[in-house]
Amino acid sequence: MQKGMHIDTERCVRAVQSKDARFDGWFFTAVLTTRIYCRPSCPVVPPKAENMTFFPSAAACQQAGFRACKRCRPDTSPGSPEWNQRADLVARAMRLIADGIVDREGVPGLAARLGYSTRQIERQLLAELGAGPLALARAQRAQTARLLIETTPLPMAEIAFAAGFSSIRTFNDTVREVFALSPSELRTRAPKKGATASTPGVLSLRLPFRAPLNPDNLFGHLAATAVPGVEEWRDGAYRRTLRLPYGHGIVTLTPNPDHIACRLTLGDLRDLTVAISRCRRMLDLDADPVAIDDQLRADPVLAPLVDKAPGRRVPRTVDEAEFAVRAVLGQQVSTAAARTHAARLVTAHGEPLDDPEGGLTHLFPSPEALAALDPDSLAMPRTRRATFTTLVAQLADGSLNLGVEGDWAETRARLLALPGFGPWTVDVIAMRALGDPDAFLPTDLGIRKAAQELGLPSTPAALTARAAAWRPWRAYAVQYLWATDSHPINFLPV
After folding, report:
1. Cβ–Cβ under 8 Å, residues 55 and 65
2. Percentage, residues of the chain above pLDDT 70
3. Fewer C-beta within 10 Å: the chain N or C terminus?
4. What contacts 107, CB < 8 A, 6 or more positions away?
5. In this predicted model, what pLDDT tens digit does every residue of 152-202 receive, in sequence order?
6. Which residues are catalytic?
7. Cα dihedral angle (28, 29, 32, 34), rounded to 10 degrees?
C-alpha cells in the first residue's frame, strides 16, 4: 500500500470487489448512482466498476456531496496508517487535527504549531486529501457526534458542544448531511445494547484495528511498566489516568479478538475526540500489520518470529512529555526500579484524582510541577539528576516540544544535545513517544541478546547495518526481537 492509493483505480476496484478489510481507512469508495460512500469492506453487493470513484478521506467524500453508508459505517473504520508512519507536513497536520487542535485553536492555531501559513497548509491538505483542515475537522466532529448519539443518553444540545460544534443548528445540519439522518433518527436506529446507561461522563465504545493484532507485547509492555497510581492492570484490562485539554479522564482498555473495548470516564465530554485519538495512538491501532510483517518476513531470521505471532504493535504513550521523563528515570536501571522512581514522583508531585473503581490515584506530574521541585530530593545519581532537571525545564518552558506536530529529525537532534541523552534514550523516546516507526535500539541489552541468539551481528554498528533491510519498520522489528526473551513485557498478565 502506498501514498495516494485512491489514484490507483484498478487496485481500488479489486479491493472493493473482494471486500478486503485491510484497505479500510486507506481510501473510501463513493458510488455515483446512490451518492453514498463506503469503506472497501462494505458488506453490500459491490457497485459496477464504472459507478465507483475513490477518495483519500471521508471529508473529501462529504465535500463532494456523498453521504456515509448506513451499513458499513465508513466513519468508524481505522485511520489511515500514513499519518503515523510519515513525518512530513501533511502527516503532522493530520495528527494535530486528530488531536482536536482545529476545534480548540482553529486553523490559525494549527498553522502556528506547524510553523507554516494557513494558505500553505490548506493547499497541501487539499492536494493530498481532497479537503482542507476545516472540512477534515468537521468530518471528525460528525464521527464524534454519531458516537455520542448512539452510545449515550445525553441530550442533543450537550452532544453538539461536546463534539465541537459551535451551534446546535450546525450540529443538526452536519449530521443530516453526512449520515442522511437526523440526530434523533440516528439514536432511534442505534442498537439498544450499545447504550451506556446512566453514569455521567462514562462512555463505552469499540476501537477498531486492522487484523492481525497480537496483544501480548502491546498490553504486556504497558502492564509491566505501569506506574502505580497512574496505571494498572485489572481484570484483563489496562487502566490509566489521562491529562486532557479540558480536564482529566480515566480509560480502561480491554483487548478482544476483533476490537479493543474502551471505557472512558471524562471530566469534560469535549475531551472525547482527543482521548480516543491518544488511546488509538498509544495502542498503535492505525498500523498496517500486513505490510509491516510482509517486509520483516522477507528476512529469513525474522520470518519465524513473525509467523509465530504476527501483528505485533509498538506500545506508545498518551503523553509524550511523561514518557520522556520516564525514559530518563529508566536509564541503566531495571524495570522495577524505574517504576519505583516514577511512583515516588507521582505521590509527591502528581495531581490527585478520584477513581470511582479505586486503584488509580493521580495524574502523572506535569513538566511544570517537576521543574519546580528541589533537585536534591531526587534519589538518583548526580549526573542523571542533571539530565532530569534539564529535560523537565525545557519541557516546561516550551523550548523542547515532543508533541505530535514535531519534526522527528529535529526533535532527535534537540534531545541528543541534552546532557545525559545518548542514542538509547533518544531512540526509545523516538519509538514510543514521537511514534517513529523506524526507530531502532541497537545498544539495547535485550536487542543485543536476541541478536546473538539468532545469529545476527551483536555489535551496534554491525546490527544497524544488517537492519537496513527492515526499514522503515525497524521499531516493529524491535518488538519481534524483544519477544524472544521471557521478560514480562512480552506477555499478557495472567
Report:
1. no
2. 97
3. C
4. 118, 121, 122, 132, 133, 134
5. 888 999 999 989 998 999 999 999 999 999 999 999 987 765 444 457 678
6. 38, 444
7. -100
> CA nearest 159: which of 141, 176, 173?
141
In angstroms, what CA-CA distances link 25 with 39, 40, 130, 193, 350? Answer: 7, 8, 15, 26, 38
- pLDDT tens by residue, 412-468: 999 999 999 999 999 999 999 999 999 999 999 999 999 999 999 989 999 999 999
Which amino acid, 143? Q
Q: Residue 341: is its pLDDT beyond 80?
A: yes
The per-residue pLDDT for 192 is 64
pLDDT at 371 exceeding the cut of 70: yes
What's the CA gap between 217 and 255, in Å, rounded?
Answer: 12
Q: Residue 1: is its pLDDT beyond 70?
A: no
Residue at 201: amino acid letter: G
Region of residue 398 (phi > 0: left; psi between -120 and 50: alpha; otherwise: beta): left
Residues in CB range of 76: below 8 A, 6 or more apart: 143, 208
Answer whether 37's CB lies under 8 Å from 29's CB: yes
Which DSSP symbol is given to 22?
G
Strands 67-68 and 36-38, by their bridges, are parallel
**Is the N-terminal amide bond of 215 cis, ω within 30° of 0?**
no
Going by C-alpha positions, the residue among 417, 423, 432 that lies closest to residue 326 is: 432
pLDDT in the model for residue 4: 64
pTM summary value: 0.91
DSSP annotation string for 208-229: --PSP-BHHHHHHHHHHTPPTT
Quick one: which of 202, 231, 221, 201 has its CA closest to 364?
Answer: 231
Residue pair 27/5 in contact (Cβ under 8 Å)? The answer is: yes
pLDDT at 494 over 70: yes
CB-based contacts of 320: which residues, under 8 Å, 6+ apart?
402, 403, 404, 429, 433, 434
The residue ranges of DSSP E strands in 312-449, in sequence order, are 351-352, 362-363
Under DSSP, the state recorded for 353 is -
Task: Give dist(CA 443, CA 43) in Å, integer.
Answer: 48
> How many other C-beta atoms lie within 10 A of the C-beta of residue 340?
15
